Amino acid sequence: MSTETCPSVRNILLLDSDGKRVAVKYFTEDWPTNSAKENFEKVVFTKTQKTNARTEAEIAMFENNIVVYKFVQDLHFFVTGGDNENELILATVLQAFFDSVGLLLRGNVDKKEALENLDLILLCIDEIVDGGIVLETDPNVIAGKVASNSIDSGAPLSEQTLSQALATAREHLARSLLK
Amino acid sequence: MAQPLVKKDDDRDDEADYSPFMGIEKGAVLQEARVFNDPQLDARRCSQVITKLLYLLNQGETFTKVEATEVFFAVTKLFQSRDLGLRRMVYLIIKELSPSADEVIIVTSSLMKDMNSKTDMYRANAIRVLCRITDGTLLTQIERYLKQAIVDKNPVVASAALVSGIHLLQTNPEIVKRWSNEVQEAVQSRAALVQFHALALLHQIRQNDRLAVSKLVTSLTRGNVRSPLAQCLLIRYTSQVIRESGNNTQSADRPFYDFLESCLRHKSEMVIFEAARAITELNGVTSRELTPAITVLQLFLSSSKPVLRFAAVRTLNKVAMTHPMAVTNCNIDMESLISDQNRSIATLAITTLLKTGNESSVDRLMKQITNFMSDIADEFKIVVVEAIRSLCLKFPLKFRSLMNFLSNILREEGGFEYKKAIVDSIVILIRDIPDAKESGLLHLCEFIEDCEFTYLSTQILHFLGVEGPKTSDPSKYIRYIYNRVHLENATVRASAVSTLAMFGAAVDELKPRIFVLLRRCLFDSDDEVRDRATLYLNTLGGDGAVVETDKDVKEFLFGSFDIPLVNLETSLKNYEPSEEAFDINSVPREVKSQPLAEKKAPGKKPTGLGAPPSGPPSTADAYERLLLSVPEFANFGKLFKSSEPLELTEAETEYAVTVVKHIFDRHVVFQYNCTNTIPEQLLEDVIVIVDASEAEEFSEVFSKPLRSLPYDSPGQTFVAYEKPEGLPTAGKFSNVLKFIVKEVDPTTGEAEDDGVEDEYQLEDLEVVTADYILKVGVSNFRSAWESMGPDCERVDEYGLGPRESLAEAVNTVINLLGMQPCEGTEVVPPNSRSHTCLLSGVFIGNVKVLVRLSFGLDGPKDVAMKLAVRSEDETVSDTIHEIVASG
Known about the structure:
By secondary structure, chain A is of the alpha+beta class.
């Protein structure tokens, strides 16, 4: 992909500590079949699992891909871009993904919690990248957009305006952060 | 470590890999999806079912067409629910199911309703979904809403519309292009991401309009771009504008350089890096321009963030390929990176050091490399191998440790590309460092004993055949080669047979033994292997038949194959089985001239590197057919060469005439291509009157007029000359176009009966010696040069005087000689002060010519040149010098 084009993300992966999928999203046709995708995940997982990517995001190259990654507990976060991509843009996307998942899971970031809230994770990926193009990078905004509909269904959500929804979400998040 | 790891054992005991999706099964979930049809929707339950469906899809499960359609129809029912969370899940699953066109219609109205909802969240998401699944027809219906959404005050809605626009531009460009006013407005948005998306879309809309892009960049580099991402885009577009402006004059300041430089002080690291990288990638970047970029990259090298270190070292590594000196300042930081935990960073640091390092540091570096070779990816190993190869060529004295290293890694596991890189490196070292030859060849022999790649085995076998006989003890290679005949597949066996024959031909003492081995190959199970064995036994005289002369055999076995394979392929395809055998001499040798005519327009980028030259199909063939259509040319023999068309008129005159010079052994034919550009005229009996008074050795034999030349439909007229046989006779010809003009009634298109005779002066044309040289490349210049020998070599030096640049001087000489540049040596690296260019060609009479040109800058602008010519005929060598001396 030429550098003149828009920065783009090839895939976002969230794997567990055995390399199994929690949630993945591919944005390009570089891996046309499921087995090609699984193969890529396997290579990426095995080559990165021994590295220490828990404090700072790490980076590696696979074929013509740059992969930035970060681990927490038993979850492995990956963001892949083309080999000509600005590494720091990919790292920004990774950080956005990582932090917004942290906000949405209220700090309990592990595989169990992620699977129990898989809807939030999927919506989160959907709000970060659209068809390979970076949609949003601010974790608070992303979590706000996702959380706006996950608030306890007891509240009358149906005709809530966005600002109200965001306000509720923010309150919710603030509470979760203070925990 | 920031967070303590959950102990694996606990995990197992407490939850035994608990997952809410444990035991989940597609059939059951599809059953569950029936709740979507309930009259009283349970939003929470429905959301869970959708999550399960998405989980299945995410795990790689696929739905059949019927299943997908069923789920889709059930999901459409959920639009009745007003639950915001459920709606989001509905959007998500619709995108995942990617419904077909007739299904899309079902949800269109629901989505359009959401697009106009008061809830911004609905609007943004409905836009993204609708644009993802829609086709062109629907797009015109919603276009109005999308335009409004682009300038919506809610940034989420605006971004959704803009990003959708970027996707839609691929499929429906004409519609999206109509939104450029709105997009332009959105570029001014105060929301960072909106600005980024708007800029991306605006650029894509205008990308084919260079002027518009240039204006966009000019205005934005002055203004204030808020988003770092948008700033990165702007940097990319700026470098594109710089590249296309093609302003290569190094004295003047590059436009927009100041902008790039100012971005190095941006507060976002993303932007700083983008700018630094852009500067290092500028065409012909000067060291003054590089310095500030290198400085910030050097700072990144000691960052605590691996991503930053990686980005910096990767960029510096690229810079080191072209400007090693600029990177040496970073060597200390770079050395500390060798022990970086991140192997990719360490590899890049090592290879950078290999490029910038000096002879004394080689051994130390090699030790460090050996330690981590095993745990890096193949593509990095290739990088290391290539770096070591160039290092070895730089410091030939160090070949022993470097060759050892290569042979060690050759024995280890690795993919094809990696092994190929190693083999290529060893081959190059053997060629260029004589001392390395014997040990290198033995390493290769050992490698093919256990090589899984047919391509590499055959390549090495061929190389052994060329180099092996020249060593002190050729016999020691025979065992390795003959083993291949036993153990390998047919392709490798066949090339092993050829290699054996090459040894037999080159080393007389080995001949009897080779015959024994070749005779054994006569019983091989494969046709090709047997055929080759028979052929070589025959040519080498192993079957007692009349032996061909030694020279012929060697030429057959070792001679370079100088016919372009493409041409041979075409000729073989055209050949129809008949009594007459296929004649390899009838294959045109001219290398198809690549469409390099864009030299004058550097901005015009070829559509893609791999794009096939879809221009006129093989002009040489076309010319030959055209000439054959004139019976008078039939006895001229085989066409040797046709020149490029030469313009004999100014552009945009009444009549446009170009000439093509066709060279035969004893004749020259001028083909005048005439075009009448006046609609009110019809030309008849068009002929070019040629005055050959300044071309004494030529005598006109024939001319073929053009009967009629209507407006805008080109025609040809020919003039043929006889000239001394096989000689590069030169001469100058002046031309006058003669014809009868008839007025044409523009309304009816009919010409009047009476015409007037008229003349039109054309420019002169010259036949020069270069016209008698064919552009024929050789695959390996060095070996061709050596096999030609110094017998007919002529060397001399010339001063070319002040020149615009070295590249210009090189080009001039290449054009003057009309020969084929080899091995990419026609390209002069920017800023170099000396250059060697290799040319090859075939002189009329089928005499091969090789030329080695060494250029050097002598003073600021003066260019000096050393010209060495080797050919099969010394008069030809002399002629080449005459061309240069008079040119």
